[in-house]
Amino acid sequence: MSATNKINARDFRLYDVLHSRRYSIDYFQREYSWELKHIEQLVTDLCGAFLNAYNEGDMRQAVENYACYYLGPFVISNKETKRSIVDGQQRLTSLTLFLIYLNHLQKKLGGNESLEGMILSSMYGTTTFNIQEEKLPGNTQPDDRQRVFNALWKHNEYVIQEHDSATARNIAQRYTDIANIFPEELLNAHILPYFLDWLRYNVIMVEIAATSDDSAYDIFESMNDRGLNLTATEMLKGFLISRFSDVHERDTINQRWKNAMLQLQSYGKEEDQKFFQAMLRSQYADTIRQGGKVGSQNEDFEKIGTRFHSWVRDNLKRISIHHENEYEYKTLISTIWFYHAAYLRILEAQKQEQKDLIHIFYHSKWGVAESLSYPLMLAPLTVVDDVPTQNAKMNLVARYLETFAVLRSVNFRNFSASSIRYTMYALVKEIRGKNIDELHTILTNRIKQSDVQLDGITKQKFRLHGMNRSFVKFLLSRISGFVDTEIEFFNKAQGHSTNFTKYYISPGAKPFEVEHIWSVQFDQHRDEFDQQNDYEEYRNYIGALVLLPRGTNQSFGDMPYAQKLEKYYSQNSYVQTLHPKSYISNPNFLQMIQRYQIPFEPHLEFKKADIDKRQALVQRICEVIWAW
Question: Is-contact 90 225, C-beta < 8 A?
Answer without folding.
Answer: no
